[in-house]
Design goal:
- It contains three helices and seven strands; from the N terminus they run E-H-H-E-E-E-E-E-E-H.
- It is α+β, with helices and mostly antiparallel strands.
- A hairpin with a 5-residue loop joins strand 5 and strand 6.
- The radius of gyration is 15 Å and the shape is globular.
- It has helices at residues 19-28, 33-36, 133-151, and strands spanning 7-15, 41-48, 57-64, 67-79, 84-92, 98-110, 113-124.
- It has a single domain, classed as START domain (Alpha-D-Glucose-1,6-Bisphosphate, Chain A, domain 4, 2-Layer Sandwich), CATH 3.30.530.
Length: 152
């Protein structure tokens, strides 16, 4: 892969809910996302491996920009110390636009102050493909949905 073509986008979201729980959701309990953010995430399937392990493959059915979409992700990295999980898109709608698409979620916890950082690393299939700004907005809204779910 030509690393020089990978672009990077990052967004920070402050949350009041427990950062450890947030990390655990994306590492081991992504099947709960449809309960926490039902307007965005419709369904989840474990296709290969075991939840919470590198190499596991999951399929998400989601609604982005008013359209039903799917993405097949492989968990490529988990760092418990840094509370981060990285997913690589290996199938679905994202692969129609991007040769490479990696989503990393990292949670910084400091008492009641928690910071969720979303990072996209991507390579467009064509130059005229838009940057994934609206997808980043999707993850920010989902983050707030999860936070609101846990603050109830």
């Amino acid at each position: 892969m030509a690393e020089k073509y990978l672009q990077k986008m990052m967004r920070h979201v402050e949350i009041k809910s427990d950062g450890d729980v947030f990390h655990e959701i994306f590492k081991s309990r992504p099947h709960h996302l449809s309960d926490m953010s039902p307007t965005l995430v419709q369904n989840f399937e474990l296709l290969e491996g075991e939840l919470g392990t590198v190499g596991s493959v999951v399929l998400f059915h989601y609604n982005h920009d008013g359209k039903d979409k799917v993405v097949k992700h492989e968990i490529i990295a988990i760092n418990e110390k840094k509370k981060s999980v990285a997913y690589k898109a290996i199938g679905g709608d994202l692969r129609k636009l991007y040769k490479t698409f990696i989503i990393t979620i990292h949670v910084d916890t400091d008492g009641e102050n928690n910071l969720v950082t979303w990072t996209f690393e991507y390579e467009k299939l064509k130059e005229d493909v838009e940057d994934p700004n609206s997808l980043m907005d999707f993850f920010v809204v989902m983050t707030k949905d999860i936070e609101n779910h846990h603050l109830k």
